[in-house]
Specification:
Elements (H helix, E strand, L loop, with lengths): L31 E2 L8 E5 L5 E8 L7 E16 L2 E10 L4 E2 L6 H11 L12 E11 L7 E9 L2 E14 L2 E6 L2 E4 L16 E14 L1
Antiparallel strand pairs: 1-7, 2-4, 2-12, 3-4, 3-12, 4-5, 4-6, 5-7, 7-8, 8-9, 9-10, 10-12, 11-12
């Protein structure tokens, strides 16, 4: 009865995840390894009120007409930049505060959905209230609105998998903003293993996430 969900996500995000192969992307020059944060880097602190992960989960087919969707907030995080370029980051996603937006006009059903998402069937937030995303590598893209390929590690329910997706990164003055293109994760790779009864239809393994981040020095 519950549709496929996040995040981020995280964080993130977020939480989601179908990975983009860097061998299929055109890049400018070489990738930048972000495993170490060099001394003298500029540190940007996450603005939690302006950052979030948008999630969408599907039933039967990957269709907006057969989906639940909502957001997951960030708890905290830092982004490091050097010479005007993002070089690393670590973000914590507040999975326990996941919300549904498609059920805003039906509080009873929304409470039922969120309760299920927080249960052992999905995120088990009583035991795993947070998810984390650590940026480990970037590569400039040759074209497109999403100008950077981000690579990193996403951890949900203590299960860590590598993820990779494209993002638009803007660094202006004391502020850095990151908006990813929508990308998919496989929920079962993060132990979100709920299978609905046959009479309730099939919940897709894919979840779609889109991460929005703002951070300031």
């Amino acid at each position: 009865m519950i549709k496929n969900i996040l995040l981020f996500t995280f964080s993130a995000a977020f939480f989601s995840l179908i990975f983009v192969s860097c061998n299929k992307e055109k890049t400018h020059k070489s990738e930048t390894n972000l495993a170490e944060n060099k001394t003298g880097s500029d540190i940007y602190t996450l603005e939690t009120d302006a950052s979030k992960i948008e999630w969408r989960g599907y039933k039967i087919f990957k269709s907006e007409n057969l989906a639940h969707f909502g957001t997951v907030p960030f708890k905290n995080g830092e982004i490091s930049a050097e010479n005007g370029k993002l070089i690393s980051g670590k973000l914590t996603v507040d999975v326990n505060s996941i919300v549904s937006e498609d059920l805003q006009n039906d509080p009873a059903q929304m409470q039922k959905l969120i309760g299920h998402l927080k249960s052992k069937d999905f995120f088990e937030t009583e035991k795993y209230p947070d998810a984390t995303f650590e940026i480990t590598k970037t590569a400039q893209m040759a074209e497109g609105d999403y100008n950077t390929l981000l690579s990193g590690n996403l951890t949900i329910k203590d299960k860590t998998n590598p993820v990779q997706f494209r993002a638009n990164i803007s660094l202006k003055g004391d502020e850095i903003s990151i908006r990813t293109e929508p990308f998919d994760i496989n929920r079962k790779e993060f132990n979100l293993n709920f299978n609905s009864p046959a009479e309730n239809g099939v919940i897709k393994d894919e979840m779609t996430l889109q991460v929005n981040i703002k951070a300031k020095k």
